[in-house]
Design goal:
Layout: E1 2-5, E2 9-15, E3 25-30, E4 34-40, E5 49-55, E6 66-70, E7 73-79
Antiparallel strand pairs: 1-2, 2-7, 3-4, 4-5, 6-7
């Protein structure tokens, strides 16, 4: 998984193996600015389970997470809260 820390957001991206669909992916925000991502394929025994737990700084806006899964690439954007 790649994590790109940009001024306005954290952007995570990772390719998943063939056969994954958006229905195979669960994304959950937890207390303490923790993001949990699980990708499971029940029809395959190899390369079929991935799990990540990412801890963010306090500037992560965990209420506005966006995710996109397109052509085997999962991209998750966590906006940063502007501090003045």
């Amino acid at each position: 998984m790649n994590l790109d820390s940009q001024p306005s957001a954290y952007v995570l991206s990772t390719p998943l193996g063939p056969g994954f669909s958006s229905e195979c992916i669960t994304i959950a925000a937890k207390r303490g600015s923790i993001l949990v991502i699980i990708a499971d394929r029940w029809d395959s025994e190899t390369d079929s389970h991935f799990e990540w737990k990412i801890h963010f700084d306090r500037d992560a806006d965990m209420t506005k997470i966006q995710a996109n899964f397109n052509q085997g690439l999962l991209k998750v954007t966590v906006p940063r809260i502007r501090t003045y």
